[in-house]
Specification:
Oxidized Rhodanese, domain 1, 4-stranded parallel beta sheet, 6 strands, Sulfurtransferase, Rhodanese-like_dom_sf
Amino acid sequence: MIQYLLLLPFMLLAASIYRRYYPVKGVPCIETESDWWNDTNTILDIRDYNEAARDLHSDSVNIPYAYLKRFYTEIPQGKIHVIAANKLELNLGLRFLMRKGFNVASYELKECPCNQKQKKGVLNNGIR
C-alpha cells in the first residue's frame, strides 16, 4: 500500500514534465516569412503582450498563454500558425489548442528561429 502512495506523486510529476517539455508531434516549425507560409492561416501569438508588441503582425490574434483558457473562443476556426516566446510556452499552448479541437498547422519560436536542416524527419521542436 505504501508503494502505491509513493508511486502516485512520481506519476503526477512525470505527467507534468511530459506535458511541459516533450515536443508536440506533427506540428512543423515554419517562419512566417518563408516560402511555405500560406496567407489563409490565422496567426495566433501566445507571447505576453509586452513581448508581442515589439513585432506585431497586422493580421495576428494576440492572446497570451495565460489568457487562452478564457479567450480561446475568440480564435477563428481553420488552420492556425502559433508564435511563442519559448519551448515551454509553445508545448503548453499547442497541447491546449489541440485539446480544444483547433487545427494547428505550424509554429514559430521567437527566441530560436526555425532551422530546416535538422535530423531526418524532425523539424526543430516538432516531430513528424
